[in-house]
UniProtKB/TrEMBL annotation:
Pfam family, one: FerB
Native source organism of the sequence: Panthera tigris altaica (Siberian tiger)
Record protein name field: Otoferlin
Chain intervals for the UniProt region annotation (Disordered): 285-309, 394-414, 434-495
Protein family membership: Belongs to the ferlin family.
Keywords: Calcium, Membrane, Metal-binding, Repeat, Transmembrane, Transmembrane helix
Comp. bias regions, Basic and acidic residues: 460-473
Compositional bias ranges of the Gly residues kind: 294-308
One Gene Ontology biological process: plasma membrane organization
Compartments, record wording: Membrane
InterPro entries, alphabetized: C2_dom, C2_domain_sf, C2D_Ferlin, C2E_Ferlin, C2F_Ferlin, Ferlin, Ferlin_B-domain, Ferlin_C
Protein topology in the membrane: Single-pass membrane protein
Length: 1090
């Protein structure tokens, strides 16, 4: 009204308000006559009264507002009029329609698959144009991509302003697009704005500025996008010579509208013949009555994998389309930027030159035998003139004592299972993330240093050396207290690993859209009230397929590179989408950081699986009071692709009373994975093994997978031979030619070299791509009631096996040992018993002062427990009155516990309180704590020192007390580390430390102990007694005679504390007393002369 209409917009606004006021009063008069109609219900009467009140108030406001409209207040009053419009639309919407809506169904094999719902008010006929339904007598002769090929000329325009201002800032051109119907009013569709290219009279109409180039302009309808307009605009100044200097206009036009002619040749795009191929897969439609505000809340763009989809994708009514290759010949602009901007994503455009080909030559991939793949380094050297060589070298073992990377331990395969493999992979992933963070921090620090140097100028040599020294010191310091820079690194055993992805698998492989892409099906506009609706709110389904656009005829090099005749289309290698029965095996490992669902801040989670008509709820195996539960479960589901392909894995909170609450769920589109060339059906392992924890679990061996991939990709090969060598296309792979069975016998095999080719499949020319490795993916959990907020993360992976091939046994990742071949549930956790014998102590600090003599002494006893079992701590007896810090005990502790070897954790199950319904499971590091105390009878015992030993890796004990130093515990010296789970029995001296007033560690004593680990079966066969009790009692220690309690033995105390320390004083006093007693008699006798 302000920008695009004629002058005096305030007059038009006054007229609109006057018409609104009159219309309101006319409605009141008609409604007043019809108010007492007998057929009206109470709801009708009350609603009519409400409408009359609203319109009466609106009419008065419009009349008042009309008098306030001035030229300078048009904008403000126009905003108030928008409120009138919204209120009228609200009142016009009937809450209860008396005429039913019209449904138009689409049928497929006598089954209703989709429908269109047309409101009855859009079809009603009336002689009044404003009351006519917008779809009444409408001819469906429409297009969403119109082509005009017209040039509009506006002649003799007068513009006011300076010439240079008009050239730099030309006026804005407003382009509005309308929908012209045969009957009914013209509907506004959208508008766009553009600035023309200005040519002044003194400029020549020639390149490079002229003629103008076509551009795309975004069309808007309100705040929503409504399409694109391809056009060019120019503004030509008419000079003194008139129109003679302007480009000529050829053609006749309508004098009322101006000349309308075809687009000039210089501006018209050059067209060429293209072919469009459409490969149709399947269609998913929303069910009847489905609301587009379901799972995910409609936030973000719908993910092809189902995450954040506007409604539960399982509720889609899916039906299969025959694998149709639709070939269309069209003429498109040669310039790619002028091609239709509305082409859907998922297209593939082949340029004139086609995809580039690799240089010829052989690529040799060497794999050294009997070396874990994780320790291999790959160096790639590519040369256009020579053969490309890919070598796989092996790291040499480091010598003992060198400062380089420590040598890996040889693991005991009898103690390894899938969990060992998993947690080793978790450690590797964490280490990689730490390295990435460290590299990022180093880069930031380097930039800060460079910026600082640039501001402060160059540093002096001494200052620079000092800064470098401090930086090096900071980086070498260990974060732990008392851990020096030379602390020994943790040695990692040689364990075959898998790939742990910290995000969804789709993000690593481009959503598996190598040929099957997902396109949203949008609902068209149904009324003016949907102008502000977003694209997500209009989604009614999705279509799966592929589009390919390429210029014809294709060059010969493209045909040669494709490996087949492209005349019959580029989609010749795609798999068929005929219905196929598939066994889907879902492995759920664990969940992390779940959102609390109970008032105690915890949750009782369990797993629920939905696929097609199958709904599995593992309610019986819920985990009590855990936000980081370990499930270790697998679920087998039979499904038919592509009709049943949306997998939902949900985590629920178990409740004793009421319904269970949904914590979060994740959705996986299995159809894209199953048909992907990345082979996401079953991950490729690092190594091939026929026994042990790393046994091959794919029903097809590597030597069977490789020929199948070569056949599907029309690649030459594989050619095996000589042993340990295979050639695929122009690539040669080498590796071990033998494999070791369970009995240790070596047999010839081709599996290793075939696996080497599969793991380097992306190096194969033309068809090469990354194959999905053996993995565990991490997926976010979302809740429809809390859109956009992550409720936790779930670690899982999915295997898919066609039912027409032999299936492998489900190797379920359980918390115990590997299950037997018949896939029965795993046995419970292994139980151990740790026997700790405290023999002696030495150099214990003396805390007490003797009451009689003032000498330093301590009443020593030793306390021990396993971490997490403080309530079951055990104490030795007391070695009283130790004068030298030496203590003798011969005391035995017994600690039974359940142990999870894969996580190196002790598992404890106990109730949090007396009101708890179930026991809560805790996983605690396996650590033994030993402390020395000074016993006091009339006050609290005094703590003297302690040491905590990690049972998986702790310093080996010293042979003698003199060799035992404080550095053994602080890590300042290189001490061999031992594991009680491998060593089984360890004896030695260990230092006991405590912090002084300066918060520094100091040596407060030494303890001689013996650790002996037995399984529950071994402990039952060889029982021992606690302390010094039967069976197998320990000898009573030989302690000094001074070791006793003084107030329970007063005579003994006098004997040891008084006689042994002051006996010479007593003798002198006795002699002195005897002398004093004999002196008087002697003096008397002397006096009397006796």
């Amino acid at each position: 009204m302000i920008k695009t209409e004629k002058s005096y917009p305030e007059r038009r606004l006054r007229g609109v308000l006057e018409e609104l006021s009159c219309g309101c009063y006319r409605f009141l008069s008609l409604a007043d006559k019809d108010q007492g109609h007998s057929s009206r219900t109470r709801l009708d009467r009350e609603r009519l009264k409400s409408c009359m009140r609203e319109l009466e108030s609106m009419g008065q406001q419009a009349k008042t507002l009309r008098a306030q409209v001035k030229r300078h207040t048009v904008r403000d009053k126009l905003r108030l009029c928008q409120n009138f419009l919204q209120k009228l639309r609200f009142l016009a919407d009937e809450p209860q329609h008396s005429i039913p809506d019209v449904f138009i169904w689409m049928m497929n094999n006598n089954k209703r698959t989709a429908y269109a719902r047309v409101p009855s008010k859009d079809l009603l006929f009336s002689i009044v144009e404003e009351e006519l339904g917008k779809d009444c007598a409408k001819v469906l002769n429409e297009t969403l991509c119109p082509t005009w090929d017209q040039m509009l000329v506006f002649d003799n325009l007068e513009l006011y302003g300076e010439a240079h201002e008009l050239r730099d800032d030309p006026p804005i051109i407003v382009i509005e697009i309308y929908d012209q119907d045969t009957m009914g009013k013209v509907d506004f569709m959208g508008r766009t704005f553009a600035k023309p290219l200005v040519k002044m009279a003194d400029e020549a109409y020639c390149p490079p500025r002229f003629p103008p180039q076509l551009e795309y302009y975004q069309i808007y309808r309100g705040n929503a996008t409504a399409g694109d307009l391809l056009a060019a605009f120019e503004l030509l100044q008419i000079g003194p010579a008139g129109k003679a200097d302007l480009p000529p206009i050829n053609g006749l036009g309508d004098m009322d509208r101006g000349p309308i002619m075809p687009v000039p040749v210089g501006i018209r795009p050059v067209l060429s013949k293209y072919r469009i191929e459409v490969s149709e897969g399947s269609v998913g439609l929303a069910p009847q009555g489905a609301s587009p505000s379901g799972c995910g809340g409609g936030q973000g763009r719908p993910h092809p994998g189902g995450q954040g989809y506007p409604w539960p994708p399982l509720a889609l009514d899916r039906f299969r389309l025959s694998l149709l290759l639709l070939l269309l010949s069209v003429r498109l602009p040669v310039c790619p930027s002028l091609c239709p901007g509305r082409l859907p994503r998922g297209r593939r455009v082949l340029c004139d030159g086609g995809p580039s080909s690799h240089p010829p030559g052989e690529v040799v991939v060497n794999m050294e035998p009997e070396v874990p793949v994780r320790k291999l380094e790959t160096m790639v050297k590519l040369d256009a003139t020579s053969d490309a060589v890919i070598k796989v070298d092996v790291k040499k073992k480091k010598k003992k004592g060198s400062s380089e990377e420590p040598e890996e331990e040889e693991p005991d395969e009898s103690m390894l299972d899938w969990w060992s493999k998993y947690f080793a992979s978790i450690d590797t992933m964490k280490e990689q993330l730490r390295q990435q963070e460290a590299s990022g921090i180093d880069l930031e620090e380097k930039e800060e240093v460079e910026n600082t140097e640039g501001l402060k100028g160059p540093m002096k040599g001494k200052e620079k050396a000092k800064a470098a020294k401090e930086e090096k010191k900071k980086r070498t310091q260990s974060p732990g207290t008392g851990q020096g820079p030379e602390a020994p690194e943790k040695k990692k055993p040689k364990i075959d690993e898998l790939k742990v992805y910290p995000k969804e698998l789709e993000s690593e492989f481009d959503n598996f859209e190598d040929w099957l892409h997902t396109f949203n099906l949008l609902r068209g506009k149904t009324g003016d009230d949907e102008d502000g609706s977003t694209e997500e709110e209009r989604i009614v389904g999705r279509f799966k397929g592929s589009l390919c656009v390429y210029k014809v005829p294709l060059p010969e090099d493209v045909s040669r590179e494709a490996g087949y005749d492209p005349t019959y289309g580029m989609f010749q290698g795609i798999p068929s989408n005929d219905p196929i029965n598939v066994l889907v095996r879902v492995y759920v490992v664990r969940a992390t950081d779940l959102h609390p669902a109970d008032i105690n801040g915890k949750a009782d989670p369990y797993i629920a699986i939905r696929l097609g008509k199958t709904d599995i709820r593992d309610k019986e195996n819920y985990i009590s009071k855990q936000l980081n539960p370990v499930f270790g479960k697998s679920f087998d589901i039979e499904a038919s692709f592509p009709m049943e392909s949306m997998l939902t894995v949900a985590v629920y909170d178990w409740d004793l009373v009421g319904t269970d609450d949904l914590i979060g769920e994740t959705k996986i589109d299995l159809e894209n994975r199953f048909y992907s060339k990345h082979r996401a059906t079953c991950g490729i392992a690092q190594t091939y093994s026929i026994h042990g924890y790393n046994i091959w679990r794919d029903p097809m061996k590597p030597s069977q997978i490789l020929p199948r991939l070569c056949k599907e990709g029309k690649v030459d090969g594989p050619h095996f031979g000589p042993p340990g060598r295979v050639k695929v296309s122009n690539r040669v792979f080498t590796g071990p030619s033998e494999i070791e069975d369970e009995n240790g016998q070596r047999k010839p095999t081709e599996e290793h070299v075939a696996l080497s080719a599969l793991r380097h499949w992306e190096d194969i020319p033309r068809v090469g791509c990354r194959l999905v490795p053996e993995h565990v993916e991490t997926r976010p959990l979302l809740n429809p009631d809390k859109p956009g907020i992550e409720q936790g993360r779930l670690e899982l992976w999915v295997d898919m096996f066609p039912m027409d091939m032999p299936l492998p046994c489900s190797r379920v990742p359980t918390l115990g040992p590997p299950p037997p071949p018949d896939c029965e549930p795993a046995s419970p956790l292994p139980r151990y018993e740790l026997r700790v014998i405290v023999w002696n102590t030495d150099e214990v600090v003396l805390e007490d002062d003797d009451f009689f003599t003032g000498e330093k002494s301590s009443d020593i006893f030793v306390r021990g427990w396993l971490k997490g079992q403080q309530e079951d701590k055990q104490d030795t007896d007391v070695h009283y009155h130790s004068l030298t810090g030496e203590g003798n005990f011969n005391w035995r502790y017994l600690f039974p516990f359940d142990y999870l070897a894969a996580e190196e954790r002790i598992v404890i199950s106990k109730k949090e309180s007396m009101f708890s319904w179930d026991e809560t499971e805790y996983k605690i590091p396996a650590r033994l704590t030993l402390q020395i105390w000074d016993a006091d009878h009339f006050s609290a015992d005094d703590f003297l020192g302690a040491i905590e030993l990690d049972l998986n890796r702790f310093p080996r004990g010293a042979k003698t007390a003199k060799q035992c130093t404080m550095e053994m515990a602080t890590g300042e010296v290189d001490v061999p580390l031992v594991s009680i789970f491998k060593q089984k029995r360890v004896k030695g001296w260990w230092p006991l430390l405590a912090r002084n007033e300066n918060d520094e560690f100091e040596l407060t004593g030494k303890v001689e102990a013996e650790l002996h680990l037995l399984t529950a079966e071994e402990a039952e066969k060889n029982p021992v007694g606690l302390a010094r009790n039967e069976p197998d009692p320990l000898e009573k220690p030989k302690r000094p005679d001074t070791s006793f309690i003084w107030f329970l033995n007063p005579l003994k105390s006098a004997r040891y504390f008084l006689w042994h320390t002051s006996r010479w004083r007593f003798l002198k006093l006795v002699i002195l007393a005897l002398l004093l007693c004999s002196v008087p008699g002697y003096l008397v006798r002397k006096t009397l002369g006796a």
